[in-house]
From TrEMBL:
Residues 2-159 form the Aspartate/ornithine carbamoyltransferase carbamoyl-P binding domain. GO terms for molecular function: amino acid binding; ornithine carbamoyltransferase activity. Pathway: Amino-acid biosynthesis; L-arginine biosynthesis. The gene is argF'. This is N-succinylornithine carbamoyltransferase. GO terms for biological process: citrulline biosynthetic process; L-arginine biosynthetic process via ornithine. Keywords: Amino-acid biosynthesis, Arginine biosynthesis, Transferase. The lineage of its organism: Bacteria, Pseudomonadati, Bacteroidota, Saprospiria, Saprospirales.
Length: 313
């Protein structure tokens, strides 16, 4: 792997899943791998899981880890040829070049603005770092993808599946704020590429994801029909791709015990953070079929597999 930005950078999904499970099974035994190397995590947006699991993965492999919160007053310029006489104090060309001198792997989180679909879907910020960094770049969630989350989700499904090709349902669920499509895009993209699962996506009319991520999946606008016979139910809110950034308050789409009763005793998944009794009821989240904490744990091992892969380990 040269960079880790999407499923297209994975060697193969089964290979990366096996590597993550290897690091999970051999925790505390891999501290030589990145001895003398430095990992920089650059966050333009807040995080609990991604920040701490990636730091922990770095320590597991022996990296020195530096994390920088860049969401405050540090305004970067991303346009080539810009006349920088306004707010931006530094161009990404210099910033990425400087950061590359301080580390062996550079990881970046940058969310979309959800105003300009063309700009967001060009994934300009992460791609600018890839262009100007001289070290491997890892996405900690970009404008349109969250690949470390998706790999952790694959690991969690691999650990819990009871059939060779389980039915996985990605369902839209309500949320009071407008959220990116990144987690859902990425989850769909990984599930479609992974030939060990059968993906159905359920979302209201007007909330279809971009087909570049979903081609090959079944897309339904009836949540109950989609959930029938499911082995895994993955809930997530996303704002509209077609009416870009628009939201809808649709409480009928909350995942409840009654809807889970339609499934094949499915496991419930969510990337967290989750709004209780909006996205999903307490009863589902607190049940023994909920995998949300296992997913969060697997974020560490997914990150370890990726960081080791970038070092050739
Ligand atoms: N799932 C996830 O990415 O969580 P954070 O936003 O807390 O990193």
């Amino acid at each position: 792997m040269k960079n880790f930005l999407s499923v297209h950078d994975a060697t193969t999904i089964p290979d990366l899943v096996n590597r993550a499970r290897h690091y999970k099974a051999s925790r505390n035994e891999n501290r030589e791998l990145a001895d003398g190397k430095t990992l920089i995590n650059l966050f333009f947006n807040p995080s609990l899981r991604t920040r701490l699991s990636t730091e922990r993965a770095g320590y597991e492999l022996g990296f020195q880890v530096i994390t920088m919160d860049a969401g405050g007053g540090w305004k970067l310029e991303f346009e080539d040829g810009a006349v920088m006489n306004l707010d931006s104090a530094e161009h990404v060309k210099e910033a990425a070049g400087v950061l590359s001198q301080y580390c062996d792997v550079l990881a970046v989180r940058s969310f979309p603005g959800l105003e300009d679909r063309t700009a967001d879907y060009e994934d300009r910020i992460i791609n600018a770092f890839v262009k100007y960094a001289t070290v491997p770049v890892v996405s900690l969630e970009s404008a349109i993808r969250h690949p470390l989350q998706s790999l952790a989700d694959c690991v969690t499904i691999a650990e819990h599946r009871q059939t060779d090709r389980p039915k996985v349902v990605l369902t839209w669920a309500p949320h009071p704020r407008k959220l990116p499509q990144a987690v859902a895009n990425s989850f769909a993209e990984w599930m479609v590429k992974w030939d060990e699962v059968d993906l159905t996506i359920a979302n209201p009319e007007g909330f279809d994801l971009a087909t570049e991520f979903t081609a090959g999946a079944r897309v339904l606008h009836n949540q109950e029909e989609a959930m029938r016979g499911a082995d895994f139910v993955y809930a997530k809110n996303w704002s509209s791709y077609t009416d870009y950034g628009a939201t809808a308050q649709l409480p009928d789409w909350t995942v409840s015990e009654q809807k889970m009763a339609l499934t094949n005793d499915a496991f419930f998944m969510h990337c967290l953070p989750v709004r209780r009794n909006v996205v999903v009821t307490d009863g589902v989240l607190d049940s023994d079929r909920s995998l949300v904490l296992r997913q969060a744990d697997n974020r560490t091992w997914a990150a370890a597999a990726v960081l080791a892969g970038l070092l050739g380990g």
